[in-house]
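ESCALATION

Customer reports they have been waiting on this structure for their group meeting. Please prioritize. Original submission:
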Amino acid sequence: MQWRDELTRRFPKLTKLGPDCYVVGGAIRDLLLGREPADVDVACLDPLAAAKKIRDRVIRLGDEEHLSAYRVVDRDHVYDFAELLDHDLDADLARRDFTVNAMAIALADDALIDPHGGRRDVGLRLVRMVRASNFDDDPLRTLKGVRMAVKYGFEIQEETLEAIRSRAPRIRDVATERVTYELSVILSSGAFRRAVELLDRTGLAEALGLKVVEAQTDDLSLSASYALLVDDPRAYGEQWRWSEALIREVLTLQRLLKHHDRLALYDAGETIARQLPPLLGEEPLDWPDFAIKALLTGEEIASLTGIAPGKELGELKRRLVEAQVRGEVSTREDAVEFLRA
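Update from on-call: job pushed to the front of the queue and completed.
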């Protein structure tokens, strides 16, 4: 493969960089897998200077204590720049998480640098650690190993799996936002059963307070996945800093699992209700018309019944909508008769 040509065709501003710059990590793995890289990581001696060769506007990633990289967004292309560890490429690659991420391309001479057998492991579709101690540098890497296996359909090498399992409890020491992001990718990859299997085998399910459950399908939404995996979505979501919208969706899906007649589905709303069928398997559902609105306005109901605006009027309007959802009322004339009754 002509690495430099393949990379610069996708990320044309790489041609502006000097000979001390190396493309590392995911872009190389993705090219070997026949996938289009979403962004490109560059390791170099002076990442800020390299980033400014592409564009003056540079985004600093991380904070004062934990600066991780500089980012440049150039139209549809994203370039991330980080400093070479100890200013040495071999040392840098040796400190990475998995062999398939520990490869580099020297832009100066178009060479693939692969000291840990990453290219072979891509061919074997294998997640293999560079060394176990690298998990201690950042315990989130244990969860990233599961994410890679689930996302790319890889196996986790047994020695790597054991190293993850022995360190699983340390995942609780990682910033909640980072853990929540990784889980969201894992559980949104359309491989739910594989995700649960690996989270269980690595001990990360227990460490993260997730249940180990059986499902009838892999194609679950993130909310549907959590509806099966979490006992108390409110408490869990607050602990792991979910959005309020995600907490509500998971709670609603758990209620629908217990009771999902036409009215319950209507109240949940179409966006949430349509996530339910994969959780139920082949059980048929009595779908409502989600577009239903009350056939009479509050003003019209007040005029017909003599009830003043307030709680009682609102409850009556709600009863009208329920009758429409159940199919008992379908026209304005039906609605008037319903109210008179």
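Sent to customer with the following note: The mean pLDDT is 94.
Escalation resolved.
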